[in-house]
Amino acid sequence: MLFLIAVIISVLFVWLCGKPLKKYPTVFYIGAAVITAVLILINQAHLSGIPEFLSKWVMPIFTKGILAAALWCIVAWTGALPNGSKPIKHIMPVRGELSIFAAIITLSHAVTYGITYIRRITSGNNKTDFIISFVICLVLMIIMLPLTVMSFKAVRKKMNAKKWKNIQKSAYIFYALIYVHILVIYMQKPSNTENIISILVYSAVFLLYAVFRLKKYFNVRKKEDKKIIVNALILCASVLTVTSPLVLKKAPVSRINNTANVETAEIKVTTTIAEKSDEITTILKNTTTAKKEKNKVTATTATEVETKEITEDEETEEITENTEETEQNEPENDIQEQPEESPVYIYQNGTYTASAYGYDGDVTVTVTIENDIITDITASTSESDSWYFDSAFETVRDRILISQNISVDAVSGATYSSNAIMSAVQKALDSARN
Question: Fewer CB within 10 A of the end CB, N or C, for the chain?
Answer without folding.
Answer: C
